[in-house]
């Protein structure tokens, strides 16, 4: 079997909206007598769209009609009909995710493909997605090192820290290329973000609307922004303004970070010298990139060149790899199918400690899936043990039960995904801890990662196994 899927990715960020079409080559690696094992053998980007400024109406809502028009135009330029697209992802990130009609826009766009991954990404999930698009997780695994990726967009800088391919932490700062806007023709300042205005006042820097500026006159405020980025990765002690500039949280910085990579629109001007007018985009993005390129961020850390910069968040789109769960599973209610649940995967370090360590790790990392303090539905993924003892199973059950307390307050079923073959006994232990009053879905023999989404279908083979679709954002 060798099948091709046409996949679309649509990313609406603070500054820009873009679209990418990819061909996914699907192969079955199993023998004729085995359960099918479908994998993406090859990814081929076949069309990269124009990049447009994200359209916003006067009442600060996303211009849904203009977004639709843009998508239709790009389909026409690519020479494809929307009916030809089998899968994809629509991701809304940055300040755009906080617009009043963000969910309405997502739902309207999901009709532009088959089975979409549709997500409004809060700052933590955006950090993970962008870092994967930039290739930071692969770099950390290949080079057996720690690396932080900083995705610098129009409104925020999203940080994700990986060690040996595993995600350790995320953070986000309100630093971006469009927090000061400058008229391209007159060079007069047309917008200053409130936090940047506050920073300028704190540092005694003259900055005001209508002021005609040169790149030299903007150096002091941009220098302060770069210092805050240095503080975020441990190159400087946190200043009196650091907590103010943090969007939701910063990195924990429990270890020295040797490597760094950059993505987002500003990254192009870190990796390469800009030519032409530095105000060509009507903002300070080019100047910010230049300042970072000349800073300790690039001089004291090993810089890894990102696979993608402005297109890091969604280069490809949703890919489907269909799997079958193990036969030792637990489900207490046939509430299937379950669709598009984001994955929170724990690290080996999270699992190696006590049940209290496991519980705390889950509770902390659930914050990645909060948007405006509202917790999304989440599936917890663990590696588990191949031959666990009774006490090890109980440790996992207690840790999951305590750590998922906030999820348990919702009406969602408890969803746990285990790589090793122990889901039946773990699921039954969890069900007992829940006093048999909360639905549990615990499946094994499934490999997932942070940034993935999972669909779980109705039971097959006499109820012994569940069909599972892992939707992975495809990164080039």
Tell me the structural class. alpha/beta
> What amount of the residues lies in strands?
25-35%
Which residues form runs of ≥5 with pLDDT under 50?
Answer: 314-322
Shape label:
globular
Gap between N and C termini, in Å? 23 Å
Q: Strands across the major sheet, in which order?
A: 14-23-22-16-19-20-21-15
Q: What kind of oligomer do you see? A: single chain
Tell me, rounded to a whole number, the average pLDDT: 83
Question: Total number of β-strand segments?
Answer: 23
Main sheet: strands, sense, barrel: 8 strands, mixed
Summed up, the helix count is 15
Q: Percent of residues in helical segments?
A: 25-40%
Structural Rg: 23 Å
Briefly, what is this?
With 476 residues, the protein is of the alpha/beta class. The protein contains 15 helices and 23 strands.
Descriptive labels:
alpha/beta, 8-stranded mixed sheet
Task: Please characterize this protein's 3D structure.
By secondary structure, the protein is of the alpha/beta class. Helix content is 29%, strand content 28%. The chain is built from 15 helices and 23 strands. It has helices spanning 64-78, 102-109, 123-134, 136-142, 194-203, 215-232, 242-245, 268-271, 285-293, 296-299, 348-352, 355-365, 390-403, 405-408, 423-433; strands at 2-12, 16-28, 38-48, 52-53, 87-92, 115-120, 146-152, 157-163, 166-173, 180-182, 189-192, 259-263, 302-303, 318-324, 330-331, 338-345, 370-371, 374-375, 379-382, 414-418, 440-444, 452-456, 467-473. The strands form 5 sheets. An 8-stranded mixed beta sheet has the order 14-23-22-16-19-20-21-15. It is globular. The two termini are 23 Å apart. Mean pLDDT is 83; it is low at 314-322.
């Amino acid at each position: 079997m060798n099948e091709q899927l046409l996949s679309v990715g649509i990313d609406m960020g603070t500054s820009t909206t873009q679209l990418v079409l990819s061909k996914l080559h699907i192969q079955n690696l199993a023998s004729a007598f085995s359960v099918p094992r479908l994998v993406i053998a090859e990814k081929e980007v076949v069309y990269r769209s124009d990049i447009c400024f994200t359209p916003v109406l006067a009442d600060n809502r996303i211009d849904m009609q203009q977004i639709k028009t843009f998508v239709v135009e790009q389909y026409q330029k690519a020479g494809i009909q929307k009916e030809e697209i089998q899968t994809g992802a629509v991701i809304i990130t940055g300040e755009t995710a906080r617009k009043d009609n963000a969910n309405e826009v997502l739902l309207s766009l999901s009709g532009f493909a088959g089975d979409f991954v549709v997500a409004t990404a809060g700052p933590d999930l955006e950090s993970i997605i962008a870092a994967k698009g930039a290739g930071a997780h692969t770099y950390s695994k290949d080079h057996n090192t720690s690396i932080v990726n900083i995705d610098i967009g129009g409104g925020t800088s999203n940080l994700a820290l990986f060690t040996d391919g595993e995600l350790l932490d995320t953070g986000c700062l309100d630093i971006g290329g469009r927090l000061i806007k400058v008229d391209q023709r007159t060079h007069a300042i047309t917008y200053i973000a409130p936090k940047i205005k506050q920073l300028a006042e704190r540092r005694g820097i003259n900055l005001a609307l209508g002021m005609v500026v040169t790149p030299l006159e903007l150096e002091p405020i941009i220098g302060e922004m770069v210092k805050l980025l240095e503080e975020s990765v441990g190159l400087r002690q946190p200043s009196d303004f650091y907590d103010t500039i943090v969007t939701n949280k910063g990195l924990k910085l429990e270890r020295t970070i040797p490597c760094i990579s950059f993505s987002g629109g500003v990254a192009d001007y870190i990796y390469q010298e800009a030519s032409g007018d530095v105000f060509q985009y009507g903002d300070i993005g080019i100047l910010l990139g230049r300042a970072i390129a000349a800073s300790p961020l690039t001089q004291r850390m090993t810089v890894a060149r990102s696979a993608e910069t402005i297109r890091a968040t969604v280069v490809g789109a949703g890919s489907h790899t269909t799997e079958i769960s193990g036969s030792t599973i637990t489900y207490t209610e046939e509430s299937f199918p379950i669709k598009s649940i984001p994955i929170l995967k724990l690290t080996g370090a999270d699992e190696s400690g006590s049940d209290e360590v496991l519980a705390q790790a889950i509770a902390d990392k659930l914050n990645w899936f909060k948007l405006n303090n509202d917790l999304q539905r989440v599936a917890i993924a663990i590696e588990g043990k191949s031959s666990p003892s009774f006490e090890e199973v109980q440790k996992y059950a207690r840790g999951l039960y305590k750590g998922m307390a906030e999820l348990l307050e919702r009406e969602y079923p408890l969803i746990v995904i285990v790589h090793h073959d122990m889901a039946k006994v773990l699921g039954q232990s969890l069900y007992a801890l829940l006093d048999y009053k909360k639905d549990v879905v615990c499946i094994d023999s499934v490999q997932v990662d942070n940034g993935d989404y999972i669909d779980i279908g109705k039971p097959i083979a006499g109820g012994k196994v569940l069909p599972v679709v892992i939707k992975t954002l495809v990164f080039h």
